[in-house]
């Protein structure tokens, strides 16, 4: 005879696992089946033995030990319930039932526990992930393979996965667990995910605002409603939304003087059927504060007058950089120095902090005090401002260490440093040293920022620069076979910018074919005999592939020696002195062009060159900030000898500023930067270059030969105007295609993806002039387009697609020129436009 005592019902059917997910099991006592006065019930209350049935994986001794019951002892309902809970607590069972069995004669009773074991987890997988990586979602599943499958843990895993998708705006995501059993009775669990589409914001409503319009408030948020254009998709991102509430909205109001702003309530109303959401915000703006008094206290290193220059509310308005950034971001406002602006106040405080750091006071504390009060008979809300300064002692650099350089010598790296042990610590010079090491191009970028840590009780600092070597140098070769008489061509190139780990550079380049044969060998030493004097020597032989009408092709052979000297008082300036000796031979010359007695074969040039360069660019080869200014003067002939005499002057001026960036938050990653660049180039030639006009005169157009102007063919911009007959490798205007003065200007907005990849939009303008006195900056040819550049083992490689606004074409019937603006594709190999 069997008497059921207690049980926990088990889920039935093939879908038992799914039905059990998230269930909380409770123990339920059943009423006695036999009156307590009966003999069977009395025997069950003191069982002679205890049995557990249904075990296959769990041992009987383990199950009996977990029950904690003793045969022969008197049992009541609480003891049996506790035993069942203990079995469930082991995590091994899906179902536990308790009953009593009497012997046929009723003399003995057995307490029987019937169990159903949980299957072991054989495998767990995730499928259907697109918006999130499979690894991210799998990391939210904390189920252990080889352990009993716990439905409660499966439910928790589903909740964690769902929270990830909700944080990214995927409120419509559905997670479904699917189970299959193996031959040995174990279970495979698959989380099948239907991500759905991201939740879209259909609208934002703001309550309680009177000073700022809804449009202004929503415009400051990253969470904006969907719009007509494709880039206004309105996708909801939980992180961006929280950033709006905690940072961007308070900053917006604080910049308008509402420093008491409060967000009282925020609600996201989700329509899961349509995949839409509505954001409802309630704000309390508070009063607008005006600026009252300002004072600086406890300053000794800087005078009060010096620090007052950093005070932002003096009527000076935004700086040039702030205006450029404001225009590009659409946030430029006119100055209102009567209203308190928290952002400007914080920025000014940071500039004061930087000023102290640059003088070595890295432990100085600038406490910006904002005292709220009411002034005047009308109780106008006012803030009294104060910089309370705790200067402390300046920090001295105790030592500088270099770590991670396995090949590059420490001496080579230290030459890039603009601070040395014993100096007072300077934040700007530390930053510049870090950038200069990265500019070498020998290490993985971005470099870790230098470590600084106190070296003694006085607060002096040890600085450590950490680098990671990367492969430098390249060896390239190739060959080609062309038809129509072109024949065999090829190239061999060897370039090592870090010879022997000493930052010395050596290169050899040979390009050959039927119509061209260019050879160049060069060697550079940035620190001759460990000094700040640099030197470069090069030898070359060039047979041009370009054909100039009336002059055919040319062959130039020569060498150059250049010495770079440091400029006192300017670490970033170099004065270069060079000497060049070369000879040129012109083939297939039309004698009527030069006239009798003019040199056309083995013409010799002896040239003395001077150049002054100030270079503060960072992030090379695609600069992200800084600038470069270069002035060059070349003197040929005269007392130097040679067959020609002339002077040539050129200038190159470039400036870069980062106007925005995104990404780069993960350790070791590099941010993507938007860079605004301005470039201006000009040159003038005085005297007669003779046969050397091919290299010393100014050709304009294209990107391969002479001065680049995109949107136009090579040699097409002449002193006489646009040449519609110019070809890619043929200057059909002959000598008239070359001018003695030129001007080009470029404005560009680029996306610097990394040190190897760059894309931009640009606007070019320039012209070519017969003489310097004809120089006219208002008469320029214009071009605009898009481009991309990548650094390859063969050198810089780029494509530009530009539209020439001022191109002309010749009417085939009348022969007259007519406007014919059009697009042109330019290919660059080895040329840098930036």
Spatially, the strands of the biggest sheet line up as 18-19-20-21-22-24-25-26-27-28-29-33-34-35-36-39
State the separation between the terminal residues, measured CA to CA.
Answer: 96 Å
The CATH superfamily of the largest domain is identified as membrane protein fhac: a member of the omp85/tpsb transporter family
How large is the count of helical segments?
15
Radius of gyration using CA atoms only: 40 Å
User: Helix share of residues?
Assistant: 10-25%
Based on Cα principal axes, name the global outline.
Answer: elongated
Number of strands: 39
CATH class of the largest domain: Mainly Beta
The portion of residues forming beta strands comes to 35-45%
- Please identify the structural class as seen in this structure: alpha+beta
Question: What is the CATH architecture annotation of the largest domain?
Answer: Beta Barrel
Taking pLDDT < 50 over at least 5 consecutive residues as the criterion, the unreliable ranges are: 1-37, 327-335
The name CATH uses for the topology of the largest domain is Porin
Question: How much is the average pLDDT?
Answer: 85
- Structurally, the number of domains stands at 6
Describe the biggest sheet?
Answer: 16 strands, antiparallel
């Amino acid at each position: 005879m069997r008497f059921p005592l207690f049980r926990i019902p088990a889920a039935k059917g093939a879908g038992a696992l799914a039905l059990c997910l998230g269930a909380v099991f409770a123990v339920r006592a059943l009423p006695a089946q036999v009156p307590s006065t009966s003999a069977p019930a009395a025997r069950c209350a003191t069982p002679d033995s205890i049995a557990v049935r249904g075990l296959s994986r769990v041992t009987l001794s383990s199950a009996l030990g977990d029950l904690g019951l003793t045969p022969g002892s008197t049992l009541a309902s609480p003891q049996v319930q506790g035993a069942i809970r203990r079995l469930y607590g082991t995590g091994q069972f899906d179902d536990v039932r308790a009953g009593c069995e009497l012997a046929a004669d009723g003399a003995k009773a057995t307490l029987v526990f019937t169990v159903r074991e949980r299957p072991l987890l054989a495998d767990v997988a995730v499928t259907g992930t697109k918006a999130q990586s499979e690894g991210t979602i799998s990391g939210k599943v904390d189920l252990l393979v080889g352990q009993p499958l716990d439905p409660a843990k499966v439910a928790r895993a589903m909740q964690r996965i769902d929270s990830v998708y909700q944080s990214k705006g995927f409120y419509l995501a559905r997670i479904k667990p699917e189970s299959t059993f193996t031959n040995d009775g174990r279970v495979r669990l698959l989380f099948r995910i239907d991500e759905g589409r991201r939740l879209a914001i259909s609208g934002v409503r703001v309550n309680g605002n009177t000073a700022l319009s809804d449009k202004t408030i929503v415009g400051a948020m990253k969470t904006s409603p969907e719009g007509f254009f494709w880039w206004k998709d309105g996708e909801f991102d939980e992180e961006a939304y929280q950033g709006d509430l905690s940072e961007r909205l308070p900053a917006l109001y604080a910049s308008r003087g509402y420093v008491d702003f409060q967000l009282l309530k925020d609600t996201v109303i989700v329509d899961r059927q349509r995949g839409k959401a509505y954001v409802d915000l309630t704000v309390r703006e508070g009063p607008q504060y005006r600026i009252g008094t300002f004072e600086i206290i406890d300053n000794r290193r800087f005078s009060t007058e010096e620090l007052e220059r950093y005070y932002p509310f003096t009527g000076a308005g935004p700086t040039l950089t702030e205006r450029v950034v404001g225009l590009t971001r659409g946030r430029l406002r006119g100055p209102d120095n009567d209203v308190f602006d928290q952002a400007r106040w914080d920025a000014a405080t940071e500039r004061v902090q930087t000023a102290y750091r640059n003088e070595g006071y890295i432990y100085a504390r600038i406490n910006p005090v904002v005292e709220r009060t009411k002034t005047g008979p009308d109780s106008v809300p006012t803030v009294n401002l104060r910089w309370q300064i705790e200067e402390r002692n300046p920090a001295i650099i105790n030592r500088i260490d270099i770590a991670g350089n396995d090949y590059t010598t420490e001496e080579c790296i230290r030459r890039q440093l603009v601070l040395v042990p014993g100096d007072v610590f300077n934040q700007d010079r530390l930053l510049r040293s870090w950038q200069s090491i990265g500019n070498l191009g020998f290490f993985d970028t971005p470099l870790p920022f230098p470590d600084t840590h106190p070296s003694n009780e006085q607060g002096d600092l040890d600085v450590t620069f950490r680098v990671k070597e990367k492969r430098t140098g390249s060896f390239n070769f190739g060959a080609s076979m062309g038809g129509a008489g072109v024949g065999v061509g090829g190239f061999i190139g060897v370039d090592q910018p870090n010879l022997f780990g000493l930052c010395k550079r050596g290169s050899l380049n040979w390009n050959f074919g039927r119509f061209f044969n260019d050879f160049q060998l060069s060697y550079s030493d940035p620190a001759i005999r460990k000094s700040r004097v640099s030197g470069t020597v090069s030898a070359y032989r060039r047979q041009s592939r370009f054909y100039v009408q009336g002059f055919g092709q040319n062959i130039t052979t020569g060498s150059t020696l250049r010495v770079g000297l440091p400029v006192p008082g300017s670490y970033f300036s170099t004065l270069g002195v060079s000497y060049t000796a070369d000879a040129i031979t012109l083939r297939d010359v039309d004698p009527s062009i030069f006239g009798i007695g003019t040199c056309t074969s083995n013409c010799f040039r002896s040239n003395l060159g001077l150049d002054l360069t100030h270079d503060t660019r960072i992030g090379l080869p695609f600069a992200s900030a800084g600038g470069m200014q270069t002035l060059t003067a070349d003197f040929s002939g005269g007392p130097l000898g040679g067959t020609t005499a002339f002077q040539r002057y050129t200038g190159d001026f470039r400036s870069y500023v980062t106007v925005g960036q995104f990404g780069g938050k993960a350790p070791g990653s590099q941010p993507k930067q938007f860079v605004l660049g301005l470039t201006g180039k000009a040159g003038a030639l005085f005297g007669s270059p003779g046969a050397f006009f091919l290299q010393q005169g100014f050709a304009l157009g294209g990107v391969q030969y002479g001065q680049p102007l995109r949107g136009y063919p090579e040699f097409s911009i002449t002193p006489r105007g646009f040449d519609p007959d110019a070809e890619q490798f043929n200057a059909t205007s002959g000598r008239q295609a070359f001018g003695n003065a030129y001007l080009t200007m470029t404005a560009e907005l680029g996306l610097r993806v990394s040190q190897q990849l760059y894309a931009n939009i640009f606007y070019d303008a320039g012209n070519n002039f017969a003489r310097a006195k004809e120089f006219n900056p208002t008469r320029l040819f214009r071009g605009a387009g898009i481009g991309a550049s990548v650094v390859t083992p063969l050198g810089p490689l780029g494509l530009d697609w530009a539209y020439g606004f001022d191109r002309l074409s010749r009417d085939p019937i009348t022969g007259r020129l007519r406007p014919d603006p059009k697009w042109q594709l330019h290919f660059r190999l080895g040329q840098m436009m930036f």
